[in-house]
What we know:
Elements (H helix, E strand, L loop, with lengths): L1 E5 L5 E6 L5 E8 L13 H8 L9 H9 L4 E6 L4 E8 L3 H14 L4 H20 L1 H13 L13 H5 L3 H11 L5 E7 L3 H12 L19 E6 L5 E9 L7 H11 L6 H9 L5 E8 L4 E9 L4 H18 L3 H18 L3 H15 L5 H10 L2 H12 L4 E6 L5 E3 L2
Parallel strand pairs: 2-6, 7-11
Antiparallel strand pairs: 1-2, 3-5, 3-6, 4-5, 7-12, 8-10, 8-11, 9-10
Helix pairs in contact: 3-8, 9-12, 9-15, 10-11, 11-15, 12-14
Amino acid sequence: MYRRDTLPNGIRVITEAVPHVGSASIGFWIGAGSRWETPEEAGISHLLEHMLFKGTARRSARDIAEELDSVGGRLNAFTDKEATCYYAKVLGEHLPVAIDVLSDMLLNSVLNPDELDLEKNVIMEEIKQHEDDEEGLIHDIFAEKLWPDHPLGRSVIGKPETVSAVNPEILRNYLGNWYAPDRIIVAVAGHIDPDDVVDRVANAFGDYTAPSQPIPINPLLPVSGKYLIPRETEQVNLVIGSQAPAHQSEERYALACMDVAFGGGMSSRLFQEIRENRGLAYSIGSYFTLYNEGGQYCVYAGTSMETMEEVVRIVREESQRLCDDGLTEVELRRAKNQIKGSMLMELEGMSNRMSRLGKTELYFGRVVTVEEVVQEIEAVTPEQVQDVARKVLDGPLTLTAIGPFEEGVTKEA
């Protein structure tokens, strides 16, 4: 059973009590990510996330790590383009420890200059590691080429020159501007007492205030093209795709069904045609990522230099076939069953339940129930899938690839 409480200062506390489990997962979701950084601030959201683990007025970095370890818990965080989340998983009886540590990190981090210098070096190494990982890097390059003049096109991790320029004062200003109470969501699921959770969060954050910043919304202007990045690699890693509907769009359910049938699983058209029937790739699949202003729909493949053009050709042919003919009733039913089965199995984990609470509150201002999602998925028609396929795939596409090309190529796709 879900419960939603709003503290007087605007912090939202979303809880789901699951009495039959022994664990509890908690996430402090902040509606702030790389999406709202200026070009000069690129990477500051991610850097701040790291720094909140580096000590508070009453805990050292080691104390923070040891306090959750000592009760068998796990503590971590991540930064995305539209959110930052600090989370922990513990036994239900140790949830007060997790609330205390996480709230201390958000409210009382000292942002020590020496620790900041050390963490900048850590992130510089992280950037180098990311640059060396062509399979992961190509997805960032795709976003950059699709949206070259928009912050959603920038990597969350930032650039060496912008990360190195950050000082404690810049971090404090960013923290004060973007970690306002009305942008904080505390999501908790598992073996919990909702009243106790709300009381503890209220005691920790009751006096916390900060002015809310207006959210800049800039239109997405996608760019199509073909971008080949030369690297001495054994394989070509490529992403081909285009802009997709926004997170709040009602088309997201039809898009999800389309994705599963087109490239989202072993029975999908792309997997069967490119890997099983022709043996052209080990990795082949599709995915979509949705944001407030729009999203992206992508097909990823890892293939040989000699077979790259054939793989791209098949993706285009299958895309056109999907736009022209849509899905069969059998494909659509299988896709619906896959989505429902995957979602329901994920709910067996408290971390996934917590994430659902935080994400749906973040994007919709309410908990979108599992029953509602199932109902919407079941209502998707073949015509709706074909309509969204035409919007996403029937037009100019953006292709990015990293591989042993003789020279980089940039041209219309």
